Amino acid sequence: MNKEEWAARQAQYWDSLAATYDRLYDSAWSTQENTLVASRLMALMPPQLVCNVLELGCGTGLGYDLLTKSAATKIRYTGVDISSRMLAAFERKHPGENINLVNASVEEIRVDQFENIDLVMAIFTSASYVHLPLDSFLWKILGWLNPKGGRLYLSFLNRASLRLAPKWGLRPDIQYASRRTNDGFVPATRYSRSDLLGVARNYDLKASIVSLGPLAGLLELPFAWPLNCFLADFTLGSHTIEMIV
Considering the chain, what is the average pLDDT of its residues? Predict the structure, then answer.
């Protein structure tokens, strides 16, 4: 699939979900996942009074909500998304707030468009919808980071996902449908733990690999959360795979 078709498919799919996206993830399980991700993001926040944050695939603003509800520091926020309807929903939720939203794909953002970013984040598998070789993707992000301690939190679909294995096996390139939807699909790329650790080593980066737990998408019931949370640092079979640098 060429980059033009990939971008068109991404825009069309996420536009189609913009009006209902927040409701799709309004559940007790999602709240627990949000809390887990927020705690990881807070551990990456710099000690200074203002944190420059760049979110890739910001959607309707869930990441911004997590940061502003949890962070003790002031957030200077930029969100990038290919879906104009997702960004419109974001703006309706946060009218008049001092946020910068960019309607573009990550692929077309220039490597010199941002600088001195303290935290680059792409949560809830957003990094899997970027149509760049993993090495090139990371190289672009590193050009945006604050050289004095900038951090990364990138979430991908896991190639060994138990949820996706029956249909896709271990194939890296798939057609993916967001939770509880079946009326459309979006192209995505899955990665393995070794993929992420390998590209980090290419840039002499120390990376940790975690997940949202192996039961996400399979047994999302309240009684199962403690076990899922306990296993979230183990990526075998989990639906997501997070690289923290």
Answer: 92
